[in-house]
Amino acid sequence: MALTAETESRLYRSLRAAAGAAAHLVALGFPTAVAMLARPGSSLFSWHPLLMTLAFSFLMTEALLIFSPETSLLRSFSRKVKVRVHWALQLLALLCALLGLGIITYNKHLNGKAHFVTWHGLMGLLTVLYAGGQCVGGVLLLYPKLMKNWTLAKLKLYHATSGLVGYLLGCASLMLGMCSLWFTTSVTSISWYLAMLCPLITSLVIMNQVSNAYLYRKRSQH
């Protein structure tokens, strides 16, 4: 028997809510697992994986999920509050990423190793620089009068699109990090594949959220 349009819509919203809940769990669970694996404080390097997973798995994911109509933890709050919290989380993510980058750079210096010679290192550097630029771009949304020739709607669209690119770069950097010798030595078999699924799950949820917001904006213009 064919489903009615209302039933299909309800089912779709339920699936999105379930996917969002899974993204929340992964965003918190993955950095927790990495923290247990790295044992922060056991070495200088141990802070690098923790800070990077906090930045790109937890803080950045939660910063974007704030705007989800189904799974936002601040659904009952005004958009202004959501924007401020989004900004705070993104700034914390950038600070964690910068600190993580500084630690791994200094650790390589102490051990006489070359800098940014692996795909993970290059992707990580690009991601952190991109995140910095994205935060600067976010200032334009807080103070749109700085861009007199741009409408607020266009600024929001470009910020959301470039933010998605930055988030995907962060997920790719995390996945490349899981291909490193340190991670593959510590995590093997099915656990490694499950770990690789974590950034993949959150990236799919965020991509769906951004694409739906874009389609909603397009429909509202017609």
UniProtKB/TrEMBL annotation:
Mode of membrane association: Multi-pass membrane protein
Alphabetical UniProt keywords: Electron transport, Heme, Iron, Membrane, Metal-binding, Transmembrane, Transmembrane helix, Transport
Keyword Transmembrane helix: yes
Residue stretches spanning the membrane: 17-38, 44-67, 87-106, 118-143, 164-184, 190-210
Major localization listed first in the record, in broad terms: membrane
Cofactor: heme b
Entry EC no(s): 7.2.1.3
Protein origin, superkingdom: Eukaryota
GO cellular component: endoplasmic reticulum; membrane
Transmembrane in keyword set: yes
InterPro entries reported for this sequence: CYB561D1/2 (IPR045150), Cyt_b561/ferric_Rdtase_TM (IPR006593)
Residue span(s) of domain Cytochrome b561: 12-217
Cellular compartments annotated: Membrane
GO MF, any single term: transmembrane ascorbate ferrireductase activity
Coiled-coil intervals, chain numbering: none
CDD domains: Cyt_b561_CYB561D2_like (cd08761)
Protein's name according to its UniProt entry: ascorbate ferrireductase (transmembrane)
Organism of this sequence: Semnornis frantzii
